[in-house]
Amino acid sequence: MTAHPDPTVLPEPAALPDWLAPALDYAERWLEIQRRHSGFAGVSFAAAHRGALVREAAWGVADLGTGEPLTPRHRFRMASHSKTFCAAAVMRLVEAGRLGLDDPASAHVPGLHPEVGAATVAQLLSHAAGLTRDGPDAGQFDDSRPYLDRAALLADLAGPRALPAGLRAKYSNHGFGLLGLIAEAVSGRPWAALLTETVIAPAGLEETSPDFDPDDARPFARGHSGPWPHGTRRVIPAENLCDAMAPAAGVTSTPADLARFFGALDPAAPSGGPGPLARRAMTAPASRDPHAARPLRFGLGLMLTDLAGERSFGHSGRFQGVCSQTAVLPDRGVSVSVAINAADASSEAVLSGVVHILGHFADQGAPAPGLRDWDGRWWSLGGPVDTVAAGTRIHAVPPLAPFPFAERSEFAPEGPDLARVVRAAATGSYGEAVTRLREGGRAVGLRVGGFRLRAEAEAEAHLQAHFGDGV
């Protein structure tokens, strides 16, 4: 096995907006308490600006069985993120003139049902071909069967499609497996070699591989079941080889590599992958999901939607005991990625919270000089409250909320340890004083109107003194 360089030294970011660093600081605080409160094994996070990595962090453990701490270097099964990698490889073949978006699948892969064979490359890339999602047996998702090899995939594709092509978006792992067969036929290269040579290596992704590699000794995050129904989480190896389904589900990577790779797919960003015209095609809406909870369209290997009111493109992934989500915010020039090794997690909900935080800071601006000294976390019997400086105000937010700033109060500073509530719900302390409490020069709490909030250690001591040991 070849040695891999240690990518722990981040490049010097260029022309970062002044709100981004404090926004990411609070996003990390929010992610940490979200993980603690949820009981998820681990959460890994990264952010990039214009395709350059600017932040990465991890909390929790990579394996509940061993207690191994999770780090940003731990790789995850990124599952359906693989579809974007597949699309990038296909677009490189299109740019080279070796494949056409209007080519029917049957022009490159024999033995397909005529309806399946009539599907074009563009329809397959945009989930508009009407193909089966996973065939008659999707047992690979709960480890009841292996992922399909080439013969099993072709056997499924010898049957008719489920819907007429072009009718609507219909997600299909089999469709991306077929794209892998097409790419192999056109290039004459095995899928893993083709993806590495045309996408992974040119993008400088040192922590990404086309499928799980049992000989790779780099740190790897295990999956975990949810606690239901027996009250305990089970460690899931997540080592399955995806075989012919690797173009749909095989990629193993880190949020850091994903944030960089997806950020570089923005047509406005520098890129070591497909050219600007190909990236414009990938990020343009091509099919629509009419039954999604919120507007969702598919580009070529990409999901296009709004997250927390921000226009985004990216992808999600769910493997055995692992989920992940990556989003590019083209209006902000920022890409963010999160991976969670817990089957009961929603990476979309977690990433939406991060995007909400970024949008709030972008709108409010960087904290005014001296205000960040008010940043902190304070506790009462009702739970935690975070004070977060942004713009000219101190914002008090509930960090356990999915969109913390939607429920904020705001304090206007009036002195080093004095402020006034200038925004609050009617049931809050609007118009009343906020005093920061100190002992020996150290901030140990806040008094908001008549309510006392304590730092974590002081809150624990207060609970112990008044209510005794926990149960």
Textual characterization of the structure:
With 471 residues, the protein is of the alpha+beta class. It is 27% helix and 24% strand. The chain has twelve helices and 21 strands. A nine-stranded antiparallel β-sheet has the order 3-2-1-13-12-11-10-9-8. Strands 14-15-16-17-18-19-20-21 form an eight-stranded antiparallel β-sheet. Strands 4-7 form a two-stranded antiparallel sheet. The model is unreliable at 1-13 (pLDDT under 50).
Tell me what portion of residues adopts beta-strand conformation.
Answer: 15-25%
Find the structural class using helix and strand composition.
alpha+beta
- What distance lies between the first and last C-alpha atoms, to the nearest angstrom? 50 Å
> Main beta sheet: strand number and arrangement?
9 strands, antiparallel
Strand tally is 21
What strand order characterises the main sheet?
A: 3-2-1-13-12-11-10-9-8
Low-confidence stretches: 1-13
* Rough outline: elongated
Radius of gyration: 24 Å
Helicity range = 25-40%
Mean pLDDT: 95
Number of helices in the DSSP assignment: 12
